[in-house]
Specification:
80 residues; alpha+beta; single chain
């Protein structure tokens, strides 16, 4: 895991900003170009950021929860 990104109204917002609490979260993986990105769900009905060309889409609620559990030292392995 490389970093958590937060988006609000198509713009990136920083951790600790007022908009962070109501933002859409993505997780940038250490492999260049790969993301775990949020897909709109019942709790987050609209996604304000275009999905990346490569990555794994998960529900926005799951992305929000996952982003609070990981940091830059968290290894990520994706399996089927």
């Amino acid at each position: 895991m490389a970093e958590v990104l937060a988006w609000k109204n198509g713009k990136r917002v920083g951790f600790g900003s007022r908009e962070y609490q109501i933002s859409t979260r993505w997780i940038r993986l250490a492999t260049p170009g790969y993301m775990i990105y949020a897909i709109a769900d019942a709790s987050h009905p609209s996604s304000d950021q275009t999905p990346p060309p490569t990555g794994l889409g998960i529900s926005a609620s799951d992305a929000e929860e996952l982003s609070s559990l990981v940091n830059g030292k968290t290894p990520v392995t994706i399996t089927e």
